[in-house]
Amino acid sequence: MFDVLVIGGGNAALCAALMAREAGASVLLLEASPREWRGGNSQHTRNLRCMHDAPQDVLADAYPEEEYWQDLLKVTGGATDEALARLVIRASSTCRPWMRQHGVRFQPSLSGALHTARTNAFFMGGGKALVNAYYRSAERLGVEVRYDTPVDRLELRDGRFSAAYSGTRRFSARSCVLAAGGFESNREWLREAWGMNERGEHPADNFLIRGTRFNTGTLLRFMIDAGADTIGDATQAHMVAIDARAPLYDGGICTRIDCVSLGLVVNRDAERFYDEGEDFWPKRYAIWGRLVAQQPGQVAFSIIDAKAQGRFMPPVFPGTRAQTLPELAQALGLDVAAFMQTLDAYNAACQPGTFDHTALDDCHTVGLAPPKTHWARRIDTPPYHAYALRPGVTFTYLGLKVDETAAVRFGGRASPNLFVAGEMMAGNVLGKGYTAGVGMSIGTAFGRIAGTRAAQSALQENVRAAA
After folding, report:
1. Of 370, 392, 414, which marks where a domain is finished?
2. Residue 408 counted as domain residue
3. What is the DSSP string of 192-230?
4. How many Cβ atoms sit within 10 Å of the Cβ of residue 194?
5. CATH number, domain at 343?
6. Domain presence at residue 433
7. Residues 409, 371 share a domain
């Protein structure tokens, strides 16, 4: 029998497995995917949002706790547990030396990478390199890893974990960490959560999944049915506006459209529906998937002109290009008259100012609803480009309620040997909204806590058994 069983194969699971092994526990990690797709959504990440009080290696200036907290408070609209959020924030300031010990390397923020040089530490080689480094370290330390092993149910008694099942295979352990992700790849659950809108559409039918196809929520559903305490809204998620041509799964970062703040966005009726310049893109990019999900047909179009070229990370697919705005509307299949009415009204509302995409500048609109608060410049310089957008779900926020111990709770009572980390509990910190890199901060903080606690629980059980 193993001391600690870790269910999942992404960042949170790996952090838990490494911490438990370092604490002296024997560890088995079960990953649902084949080896070549290991790592869950973490393989598509790029960075970790880090608190720091002074410049540090790859991080510029300072990003103190209170500013981090205010950023998180703003994007969540208050839908966050402050104590747990501050735990994550403080943990983000101390985890990088430990990450380096396990082979993770960092690099400075690249030019144009969403104003993140001060707030986010980027992984050299991206999330796939981080995941591979952790797996190499885990295997070197003696963590046993089994791939193609999706867990569908647990053996529980009065809130205590005994074993996990993958089909007919039974895996017993003295303690367990759940880190198997959300339910974003479960289309039926998404349809159930989002229902039918007033237009008779099932919005979830048009969602694309930015991350892994293996996060089906099977274990989360089991835990909910077993009476575990939950938190979060099933419709809330890290949901980004991505290229409508992206693949159904695993599109990752390269399908995200980052030019929204540099132009305007219209729906299929050629109408604007939100302030494209509300705030810096790292604090607002993750609301746009939900905004597009609320539009007719769950589609929208990001429109820019030549002045925006070179100011954003280009997506993998080139946009639709035209020399005139009416030609662009025709190419997009939009009503030309309605499109030109929207563009003319926007252009007329743009006020003279000093454009600065690195600051909350004074380029704004007047008399336009919705307004564009910053970076509002006339769209008048050919060639014009457009990108069709769809909602891209990264991970869902419905999860298991925890406190600072990461223990799963049943009726308010903490399990003595069952813990949870990562996307299965991220809703405690992210009730809604997102800011770049915070998902990795949550997974790293609670993965390390859960692994440590699981090892303590198992080793105490060993002592009791020996006595």
Report:
1. 392
2. yes
3. HHH---TTS--GGGG-EESS-TT---HHHHHHHHTTB-E
4. 18
5. 3.90.700.10
6. yes
7. no
* 9 in the same domain as 119: yes
Residue 95 belongs to domain spanning = 2-182+217-235+397-466
Q: Phi and psi of 23, rounded to 5°?
A: -80, 0
Claim to verify: residue 67 and residue 118 sit in the same structural domain: yes
Q: What is the pLDDT of residues 308-334, one digit of tens each?
A: 999 998 888 999 999 999 999 999 999
Q: How would you classify residue 244: left for phi > 0, otherwise alpha for psi between -120 and 50, otherwise beta?
A: alpha
Same domain for 269 and 410, yes or no, is no
Percentage helix, strand, coil for the chain under 3-state DSSP, each rounded to 5 = 35, 20, 40
- Whether residue 377 sits in one domain with residue 430: no
The CATH number linked to 460 is: 3.50.50.60
DSSP H stretches of helix in 202-335: 218-225, 281-284, 288-293, 325-332
Q: Tens place of pLDDT for every residue, the chain, 467 residues?
A: 999 999 999 999 999 999 999 999 999 999 999 999 999 999 999 999 999 999 998 999 999 999 999 999 999 999 999 999 999 999 999 999 999 999 999 998 865 445 678 999 999 999 999 999 999 999 999 999 999 999 999 999 999 999 999 999 999 999 999 999 999 999 999 999 999 999 999 999 999 999 999 999 999 999 999 999 999 999 999 999 999 999 999 998 889 999 999 999 999 999 999 999 999 888 888 899 999 999 999 999 999 999 999 999 888 899 999 999 999 999 999 999 999 999 999 999 999 999 999 899 999 999 999 999 999 999 999 999 999 999 999 999 999 999 999 999 999 999 999 999 999 999 999 999 999 999 999 999 999 999 999 999 999 988 877 77
- Report the predicted TM-score, pTM, of the whole model to 2 decimal places: 0.93
Q: Are residues 25 and 146 in the same domain?
A: yes
Number of structural domains (the chain) is: 2
Q: In angstroms, what CA-CA distances link 368 with 275, 348, 374?
A: 10, 9, 13
Cβ–Cβ under 8 Å, residues 386 and 289: no
For residue 298, the Cα-to-chain-centroid distance in whole angstroms is 20
CB 298 within 8 A of CB 289: no
Listed residues 329, 361, 392: the one ending a domain: 392
